[in-house]
Specification:
Largest sheet: 5 strands, mixed
Oligomer: single chain
CATH superfamily of the largest domain: Periplasmic binding protein-like II
Structural class: alpha/beta
Strand order of the largest sheet: 2-1-3-10-4
Shape: globular
CATH class of the largest domain: Alpha Beta
CATH architecture of the largest domain: 3-Layer(aba) Sandwich
Order of helices and strands: HHEHEHEHEEEHEHEHEEHHHHH
CATH topology of the largest domain: D-Maltodextrin-Binding Protein, domain 2
Radius of gyration: 24 Å
Distance between the termini: 31 Å
Helix content: 40-55%
Length: about 375
């Protein structure tokens, strides 16, 4: 499970508040409209014009009822990641509606909670991480239906701005904070150590939980660096709280940092809706590549980013998105090995049973 948190509570609270306000005003508007219609009908019926009253009621109802497409419930593993902004861009610019799909979005506190929601049939499609494909072996009733993003450009390592670590070689024997000992962040630090020839434990991994604890530990010199998502680190760097040393996407080339999951129920019962969603998704990716300004505006709104951070996030992360959703054999092999390294599974699984490309747009 990928466990990268940051700014979640504040963002979720603001969204809950704005969502409740919107729903409340919409309900009040509907109530007022219905009361007005009822009063009009009473006046008309009082004049024995019952037929006219019924026609007015039907006409107003028909005019106010929106034409809905097929509803799909989409879950994001976390609310604040740039990785999932394509969903918001696609909704804003009508790419899902083009295929008759209406989107209902929810967000969770990590990949594990998203997997629980998929299992409970609370969502139809999940936007999650490659490591979460291991859950299918353990019984999560889903399949990966698209490789959403490749190398882990999303994840980077920050060190103190005034510290002695100037290059990657300076990390040997140092302490690096991660979310947990069996997280993707910890695995990536181990891979860096192996690639440098220091053995898996050449860099000391220190589990510290979410971003506030990681950043505090760096400031208090309890660790020499920590691993987190790039947008969070860009904010910290802009505030003078640290310096980004490396992106793990430069080190691990063959990977699927994000995948799109669909429940077995959706696959069996509504395959056309799944195809429509994926068609809309990849048209959105093409739109984002060609329209940086509109993408950045959406990211600023959804992620509460200032323009500078949103633009840098766009420049860094857009290359990781897949244009067609096809899975890469080498990336799948690396994922299979990571499941064993992270102790998710005792042995490497048959990855061909965990995904399908059946619903992807035709080339």
């Amino acid at each position: 499970m990928i466990e990268i948190a940051g700014w979640t509570g504040r963002l979720q609270s603001r969204r809950r508040a704005s969502g409740e306000a919107f729903e409340g005003s919409a309900s009040s508007l509907r109530a007022s409209m219905h009361i007005g219609i009822a009063k009009l009908c009473v006046r008309l019926m009082g004049g024995r014009q019952i037929g006219i009253a019924l026609l007015v009621l039907l006409a107003v109802h028909a005019g106010s009822a929106p034409a809905h497409g097929e509803l799909l419930r989409i879950g994001k593993a976390v609310p604040e990641a740039f990785s999932f902004v394509p969903l918001d861009v696609g909704v804003r610019y009508g790419f899902f509606k083009k295929y008759g799909i209406e989107i209902q979005t929810s967000a969770y506190g990590g990949g594990g909670m998203l997997q629980q929601a998929l299992t409970a049939d609370s969502v139809d499609i999940g936007l999650g991480s490659g490591p979460e494909m291991a859950g299918i072996v353990k019984g999560v009733p889903v399949k990966a239906v698209a490789a959403m993003a490749g190398p882990p450009l999303l994840i980077a390592l920050m060190v103190r701005p005034d510290g002695t670590i100037k290059t990657v070689d300076d990390l040997k024997g140092r302490r690096v904070g991660v979310t947990s000992s069996n997280s993707l962040t910890a695995w990536l630090v181990g891979q860096l150590s192996l690639q440098k020839g220091w053995g898996r434990d050449g860099i000391s991994v220190t589990p510290l939980g979410a971003i506030p604890g990681l950043l505090a530990a760096l400031m208090m010199m309890q660790v020499d660096g920590f691993v987190a998502d790039i947008s969070t680190l860009l904010r910290a760097e802009a505030a003078g709280e640290g310096k980004i040393l490396l992106s793990f996407g430069d080190m691990v080339k063959d990977f699927h940092i994000h995948v799109i999951f669909a429940t077995n129920k959706l696959i069996a019962a509504r395959p056309a809706a799944l195809r429509g969603f994926l068609a809309g998704w990849f048209e959105t990716i093409a739109f984002m590549r060609a329209n940086k300004g509109k993408t950045v505006e959406t990211a600023m709104t959804v992620l509460d980013l200032d323009r500078g951070i949103a633009e840098r996030s766009y420049d860094i992360l857009m290359p990781m998105f897949s244009d067609d959703g096809r899975f890469n054999d080498r990336a799948l092999a690396v994922l299979a090995r990571s499941y064993v390294d992270l102790k998710f599974l005792p042995t490497e699984p048959d990855m061909s049973k965990l995904y399908t490309e059946e619903f992807l747009p035709k080339r």
